[in-house]
Amino acid sequence: QSVLTQPPSASGTPGQTVTISCSGSSSNIGSTTVNWYQQLPGTAPKLLIYSNNQRPSGVPDRFSGSKSGTSASLAISGLQSEDEADYSCSTWDSSLNGWVFGGGTKLTVL
Amino acid sequence: EVQLLESGGGLVQPGGSLRLSCAASGFTFSNYAMNWVRQAPGKGLEWVSSLGGGGSIFYADSVKGRFTISRDNSKNTLFLQMNSLRAEDTAVYYCVKARGLERSSYYFDSWGQGTLVTVSS
């Protein structure tokens, strides 16, 4: 059971906008910033969004992040087939004194 | 370009030990907190341990007392000594570089390709 809660799956058709949620608590999301990672099939995770809504160099602006209270969201607009991957949220947990991840959301592009 | 290259994974019996290494290049290794994150087959990511540039160490409860993280800044290498291994430690172990202004806002900006550890008799 992951500390951060994500839906196990999400889907959309090319061009659509998909949103993935990440729910936590006051000891994690509620007290610090959230990061998102993308893991393409058979590859290592890659940083997608950091500090709630910042994109590393090279990440398309189709990807955006937001945070409100103890929840965060990742939105992918203009969905493309190459966006098919697992997406995980993560943050620091002050009660556990360590970093926590969501269970991951498998995005399927129909 | 940042490169992180893990090695040392393999098959080990329950109760056994293994030492993972991560050779880093492309950045000033000593300045950054380094981490191990693992992923069991078909499962999500799990943070394992962190070693800050200043020496601060953190472990996930699941490995505390069994795993030891260390680094050799002169050789730009991160280590993870894993003792008393259990079947549930079976996973791909990633070496991960952290970045951020303070620990609570760190993000994992570079990942290695991972090394597979299998604990089985």
Q: Can you give a write-up of this model?
A:
The complex is a heterodimer of chains A (110) and B (121). With 110 residues, chain A is an all-beta fold. Chain A has strands spanning 9-12, 18-23, 35-39, 46-49, 63-68, 71-76, 85-93, 98-101, 105-109. In chain A, strands 1, 3, 4, 7, 8 and 9 form a six-stranded mixed sheet that branches. A three-stranded antiparallel sheet of chain A has the order 2-6-5, with no helix packed on it. In chain A, strand 7 (85-93) and strand 8 form a beta hairpin. The radius of gyration of chain A is 13 Å and the shape is globular. The model of chain A has no long low-confidence stretch (mean pLDDT 97). Chain B is mainly beta. In chain B, a hairpin with a 4-residue loop joins strand 7 (67-72) and strand 8 (77-82). The termini of chain B are far apart. The mean pLDDT of chain B is 96. The interface between A and B is medium-sized, with 27 and 25 residues.
Write the layout of secondary structure elements.
The complex is a heterodimer of chains A (110) and B (121).
Chain A: E1 9-12, E2 18-23, E3 35-39, E4 46-49, E5 63-68, E6 71-76, E7 85-93, E8 98-101, E9 105-109
Parallel strand pairs in A: 1-9
Antiparallel strand pairs in A: 2-6, 3-4, 3-7, 5-6, 7-8, 7-9
Chain B: E1 3-7, E2 10-12, E3 18-25, E4 34-39, E5 45-51, E6 57-59, E7 67-72, E8 77-82, E9 91-99, E10 107-111, E11 115-119
Parallel strand pairs in B: 2-11
Antiparallel strand pairs in B: 1-3, 3-8, 4-5, 4-9, 5-6, 7-8, 9-10, 9-11
